[in-house]
Amino acid sequence: MIKGEKIRLDIHKILISIYKFNKTLNSYSIKKTISKYEDSDINFLHTVLLNSMRYQYHTAKIIDLYVHKKVREQEKILLLSSITQIVFLNFKDYAVINCSVEIAKKLKIYHGFINACLKNISKNKRKLAKVKISYNDFPNWFKNRTEDISEIDKELFIANFNQEPSIHLVFKNNIEMKNFEEEIIATTDISGFLVSKKNPKKIQSFNKGNWWIQDFSSFYPLFNFNEKNKFKNYLDACAAPGGKSFQLLSKKFDVTLNDKSLLRLKILKLNLKRLKFDTKILNEDFINFNSNKKYDVIIIDAPCSAVGTIRKNPEIFFKSKEPEFKNLLKTQEEMLLKGTTLLKPSGIIIYMVCSFLKVETDDQINKFLKKKTDFELYNFKINNRNTNYSKFIKDKCMKTLPISILNQNIDGYFAAFLKKK
Ligand SMILES: C[S@@+](CC[C@H](N)C(=O)[O-])C[C@H]1O[C@@H](n2cnc3c(N)ncnc32)[C@H](O)[C@@H]1O
Question: How far, in Å, is the centroid of ligand 1 from the Cα of 359?
Fold first, then answer.
């Protein structure tokens, strides 16, 4: 097989393993497949893989228009990535069609059907690139859990969910941001979007360790939390890979980092080393965590459906199984309750999730406040110069959908400050 066919066959196999076997892009087997390629091939592979998942609803509509028979799983996935390349990525039609036909032969799919179908589609690709999808196309679990969202927000979500994520950087301080060699669109005096789409790790100052990559939405809650004199010691209960911890460490707060996953702690430690931060690290299951030490602030950036990061993780919608809500909701609830046992009087739990689903956000907070009547929501104070972002504060909590600010994309996110009365 020629290289283009080999990469596309691997893309096909990865898509099948996500769709059918619920793998994530971080799965060992997928990472292993990708790592055997050189950088330029990896870029190609990522582009096709991520966009095939992002455009799955658009391509499904196109398949419906052109295929009038029952499409089998292998055929559907092969068409999906081929149509994405032709219609949405504007790759050379003949190269895509030739490779797809060869892959069909290898997979024992009727290649004449793939060939005819893709040729027809390529003739109309300009028109097909404008195909519209509706909220109804999304998975049932998502539709059922977003019934509270307004029609305007649903339209906004449809327009945004399949776009490329932007790269948002956070600097240790405003001087490091001023000295940064690349052009950025500032979101605050210590953060901004990288204008060029280059790999941030290839930027010269990466190894100097004065900045890290962190989405604007996940950065914003702690950016606004500046009560160093009032709150002395911090526990970041779910710290890896470290964005929130770096924010606190750069403000020179006394913070202990914890994470259950050894693998993710390994990445956290590498990040800490690059950023020249040093602090205490624990490897505990937070739900069973016992300590005589009490903390002023406990940050619970809890495991969740991660649907707020749908642009970075389009596999959330691509998998045939829904996120494990039962386990996730239980863990979030138990983590919040555990937090209360480790908190000093008048301390604060900062609960965050990269989700905008009511069950993981408002419902969790309301359930907690009902159970723990000695807690109340602490008002989200916005740093004075950031009134542009006040629209993200609702009912004393921060809530964002995956939308754009300054023409750049941000994640959907939720943060609540729960204060012991
Ligand atoms: C959303 S991520 C945290 C992101 C991190 N705060 C940051 O800003 O980079 C959730 C983390 O929770 C960890 N985790 C999941 N269950 C846990 C548990 N029972 N105890 C401690 N950590 C847990 C996961 O390993 C994962 O690293």
Answer: 19
